[in-house]
């Protein structure tokens, strides 16, 4: 005799009637999302033979929404990881079936980004983007939102108030934490600052906060003017080489943006890494290796998993309403990593 679980066993495991299980299986009438999910989880728990069909039925019953996620640089390990986390978070959503399109923008000019926004808004039900703050991009976001398409900024905010929500790291704390570390780990001397662009408001805020920390107490450091790299590894490498050659007494370096692999390359070649306290953003394979080798002192990282989950929750909330309602920005607490925490 077969011990295969029956529909009665499934109904008992899910705490519903057999008629409810039948409605979920055969789509005879509408069942609440929470009830359908409970039946599906019970089916998987007891090994019900039609669990696969149930999963398909539950998926078919949800509304489908198209999401476009516009990230930077396809060759960047951090953005690849971010895209993967956002896709998984959206796939795990229970209220909608999100069809997610991840687009990496290898050109970061305002015109190009605005064009990408315009193109994606023709098909997407909602958009997430890592933007530059520029009038062209702000105006395009305002146009998209006016058409009742939610726009969520990730990592770097915009000056327009039209965005549905901003989800990012607390950049003031990031900059001040970096300054705190440099002030305690570095020897007296000159301190350099590297960032991608002041048009990324997250980097701009982090740089300002780094500098403001040093203004609050007497110290023996000379803060040098910031250098920009457009978050490009080759440009960051060249800028760091110039900084090292022009500043014999360089003892501290803070990278508020990307291009970290280029900075590390220059430090390795200079053979001065032991004399320079280096703090950067984001936990990646390259920065973990640099921490373990002593070329990097600590990392201020974005909690990517929390960010991705918040983005998914934001889209679920926004798309559940008839009209877009702005949501309060989310500033996530920074994560700090040193060699001993790897």
Q: What is the fold's blueprint, element by element?
A:
Elements: H1 7-14, H2 18-26, H3 33-46, H4 51-61, E1 64-72, H5 77-91, E2 97-105, H6 110-120, E3 126-129, H7 135-146, E4 151-154, E5 165-169, H8 171-185, E6 189-195, H9 201-215, E7 221-223, E8 227-228, H10 233-246, E9 250-255, H11 260-270, E10 277-281, H12 285-293, E11 298-301, H13 304-319, E12 330-332, E13 335-337
Parallel strand pairs: 1-2, 1-3, 3-4, 4-5, 5-12, 6-7, 6-8, 6-9, 9-10, 10-11
Antiparallel strand pairs: 11-13
Helix pairs in contact: 1-2, 1-3, 3-4, 5-13, 6-7, 8-9, 10-11
Quick description:
This protein is 47% helix and 19% strand.
Give descriptors for this structure.
single chain; 342 residues; alpha/beta; Rossmann fold; seven-stranded mixed β-sheet; six-stranded parallel β-sheet; elongated; transcription; LacI family DNA-binding transcriptional regulator; HTH_LacI; DNA binding
């Amino acid at each position: 005799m077969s011990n295969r679980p029956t529909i009665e066993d499934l109904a008992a495991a899910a705490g519903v009637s057999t008629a409810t299980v039948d409605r979920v299986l055969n789509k005879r009438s509408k069942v609440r999302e929470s009830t359908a999910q409970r039946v599906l989880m019970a089916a998987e728990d007891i090994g019900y033979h039609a669990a696969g069909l149930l999963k398909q039925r539950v998926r078919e019953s949800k509304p489908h929404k198209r999401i476009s996620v516009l990230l930077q640089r396809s060759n960047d390990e951090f953005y690849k990881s971010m895209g993967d986390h956002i896709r998984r978070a959206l796939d795990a959503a229970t209220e909608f079936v999100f069809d997610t399109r991840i687009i990496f923008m290898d050109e970061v000019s305002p015109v190009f980004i605005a064009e990408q926004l315009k193109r994606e808004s023709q098909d997407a039900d909602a958009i997430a983007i890592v933007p530059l703050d520029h009038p062209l991009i702000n105006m395009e976001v305002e146009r998209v939102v006016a058409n009742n398409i939610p726009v969520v900024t990730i990592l770097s905010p915009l000056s327009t108030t039209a965005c549905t929500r901003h989800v990012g790291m607390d950049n003031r704390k990031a900059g001040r934490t970096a300054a705190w570390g440099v002030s305690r780990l570095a020897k007296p001397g000159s301190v350099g600052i590297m960032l991608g662009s002041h048009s990324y408001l997250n980097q701009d805020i982090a740089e300002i906060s780094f500098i403001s920390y040093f203004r609050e107490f007497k110290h023996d450091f000379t803060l040098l003017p910031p250098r920009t790299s457009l978050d490009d590894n080759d440009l960051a490498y060249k800028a760091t080489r110039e900084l090292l050659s022009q500043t014999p007494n360089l003892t501290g370096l803070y990278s508020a943006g990307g291009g970290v692999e280029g900075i590390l390359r220059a430090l390795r070649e200079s053979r001065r890494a032991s004399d320079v306290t280096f703090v950067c953003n984001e936990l990646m394979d390259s920065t973990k290796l640099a921490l373990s080798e002593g070329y990097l002192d600590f990392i201020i990282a974005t909690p990517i998993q929390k960010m991705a989950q918040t983005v998914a929750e934001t889209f679920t909330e926004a798309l559940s309403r008839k009209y877009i309602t702005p949501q309060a920005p989310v500033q996530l607490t920074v994560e700090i990593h040193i060699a001993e925490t790897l």
